[in-house]
UniProtKB/TrEMBL annotation:
Keywords: Plasmid
Taxonomic source organism: Nostoc cf. commune SO-36
Taxonomic superkingdom: Bacteria
Protein name listed in UniProt: Peptidase M15A C-terminal domain-containing protein
Gene3D superfamilies in alphabetical order: 3.30.1380.10
Length: 160
């Protein structure tokens, strides 16, 4: 699953010959492993591997360069896709240590998946719409926040 977490994005698929998709930091690898064990494995066990579709996982420094070129809607300071990677100054890209991914369960409404995720030890969940991928993160110090994003990409607490 680690390889899939590092290579699942459309941007990686487009530029794979130019991108090293893997972590430079063992802390990131541990966080990705915890994401898999604590969140993804229970989701797959509940909904089935055949229905699980990973759409965005770990963001390496190389992948970040290409995402920035494509003006992707990423916010590395909070979204945890870069896990525990550090910039050139030695600072973490994201202040919330942990790891994140986006996924869908084919044929299942996102609200039903979120209901299940809320039973797990998640950090943050982002809901973008009923038939869109869900963002979920894991952290050793979970905030347990669920956000819904409006059509204008504005976050608000989920369910309000």
């Amino acid at each position: 699953m680690l390889e899939e977490l590092c290579t699942c994005s459309d941007t990686y698929a487009k530029y794979s010959h130019l991108i090293n998709p893997y972590s430079e930091n063992s802390e990131s690898e541990r966080s990705l492993s915890q994401l898999q064990v604590s969140i993804l494995t229970p989701v797959i066990n509940r909904f089935g591997a055949e229905n699980f579709k990973l759409t965005y996982g770990f963001c390496s420094k190389d992948l970040l360069k290409f995402l920035n070129r494509e003006k992707s809607r990423i916010y590395i300071k909070v979204d945890q896709h870069m896990a525990a990677e550090r910039n050139n100054k030695g600072n973490y890209y994201c202040k919330h240590l942990g790891a994140a991914c986006d996924f869908q369960i084919v044929g299942v409404e996102s609200t039903k998946v979120i209901s299940f995720l809320k039973t797990l030890n998640f950090d943050s969940i982002y809901y973008y719409g009923e038939h869109k991928p869900i963002h979920v993160s894991y952290s050793q110090t979970p905030r347990r926040k669920v956000w819904e994003f409006t059509a204008q990409n504005t976050p608000r607490p989920y369910g309000n």
